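Subject: mismatched residue count in predicted assembly?

I count 664 residues in my input, but I want to confirm that the predicted structure covers every chain. Input:
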Amino acid sequence: MVEEMAHPLSKYSRAAMMPHIWCSGCGNGIILNCFIQAINELQVNLDKLVVVSGIGCIGRAAGYINTNSFHTTHGRPIALATGVKLANPELEVVIISGDGDLFAIGGNHFIHAARRNIGIKVICANNFNYGMTGGQQGPTTPLGALTTTSPFGNIEHPFNLVHLAAASGATYVARWTTLHVRRLTQSIQKLLQKEGFCFIEVVSPCPEIFGRYNKMRTGLEMMEWFKKASTVENFSDPAKAEITPEKIVVGEFVDIEKPSYEKLLHEKIAQINEEALKELS
Amino acid sequence: MTKKRMVLEGAHFINGDVACAEGAIAAGCRFFAGYPITPATEIAEHLAQRMPEIGRIYIQMEDEIGSMAAVIGASYAGLKAMTATSGPGFSLMQENIGLAVMTEAPCVIVDVMRGGPSTGQPTLPGQQDVMQAKWGSHGDYEIIALAPSSVQEMFDLTIEAFNLSETYRVPAILLADEVVAHMWEKVVIPPAEKIKIVNRKKPNVPPEKYLPFMPDDDLVPSMACFGDGYSFHATGLTHDEHGYPQTSSSEVQGRLVKRLCDKIRRNADKIVRVEEVMLGDADIVVIAYGIVARAALSAVRKAREIGIKVGLLRPITLWPFPDGHVAKITKQAKAIIVPEMNCGQLVREVERSAKETPVVFLSKLGEDPHTPMEIVEAIRRNS
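Triage response: the counts match. Full output below for your records.
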């Protein structure tokens, strides 16, 4: 008799939710794997972890992780997570969502959460398009790229997400591609241990949809592009880190200390109550 | 800190917005997220002062979409949560009100109705969001909405909204109007221990046996919270009793959506509240709610003085609509008069329930609610 062997990390996934919905060659599985490796490494208490996601392919990741999870309306995971984090600051609140969800429909919540410096951790899978709805142009689609809604080439300038995050006030900002598995895992560990609003952009292949229209038909071809174009430049100027066909600057861009919103809030409450108590006595 | 400071007590001369905020505190609201908007801003201002004083959370979000989302998040993390707004903000909240319905997140939304559509008349009253409160988010659902007529009710019904929301795991809307919100009146707040407070059902099974969306006999599932040790998944997608998405099962869709409606419909008798004044021998009935009901009450009294048998039926619960109460009065009434500050909203529900009895609609838009004399005139014409 051969005993059935469980995968050492199987406790982190919800078997009932499998099989996942992602296409072959998609980078979402790599991102999920790196996240699980990171929480395993840190021995994060799953009862105190909350993963929130929005709508899109990667949005399903929240449900695949065997923890407290909430799959919100499109663009709203950061706003919902704000309520979770303030209600119970002991919870580790992580958002795993996509570029369209976080930066088009949800862009306002992103910049304000970063400005407030609320202690939620955002991991963004940037696949340059709306994959789930079949490949429409989005806020990170490169200039000139072909999508189903930019059939003559995209004429909108894309966001440089790390620059946006840094300018909005995030205390930790990094960018990796799904090729940088070890660095991404370490970066997620760092993100989980920092105070305040933290952000990692993961450039991720979408060969079935984005690649199909842009001469990178397989996951391998997209990964080859990442390999060729990526250059690690830690703490370089995020303003100069636009993603181009020739160059994808990866690395850590911001790593600063700043009191989080929830810390300031609870300090303020304690201070007010002390004063109130003095008044009463 | 003394208990007295936590929740106000005794008689106070305050406005409706402040009464609502104090009602929320008395109900055990521990989280408020909002965005400034006339004529609901005073609720946020009052809570920005009061909540930190008593160790509770106030946050001003970037918009009403975010406010509503944060409220759901706080509710899932175990706190009673509320937001307050007016028409334009209420429109923005509709998306996540649908999410709260679908994920059965207890929460309270205060909509202080002003004149619409669009930016409309921010400082003037209206009753134009009645149908939006019921149908504002897409898809089929039932919801609870209460309409206060006085500053005292701004306090009392805010507590009631929390209690109903916690009982049925459904968003409860306090559908106030600008006059009730800005009017100053005496409010009597009973001692905290005399105020009835309802908290959501907690699971009574161990985590491994917990099914987050398995209803009990009352069709309401018990609710664990994030951090309680009952790790579970919640989604706006159609989901089964485990909370797992079932996006291609007609059976699960039917079962879930029907239950979300039925948990309110089948419990409507327990939810619905009305005030009945001089209905006993009335052959004319005025149906009015909110500030308009105050003028209607005055009109009914004046008409009685000149010998007309008229009574007032005041729906306190607008949703679920008190069909039964309206159907009952049709047996005795030869006419029903419905004054509303809109172009005809609740009157349609009245017509639906009244069947053959003629229904007279009195519309009013703009600065002033109906005067008692305008309603007396309508009573006289139909007597």
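Chain A touches chain B through 43 residues (CB under 8 Å). Marking this ticket as 'not a bug'.
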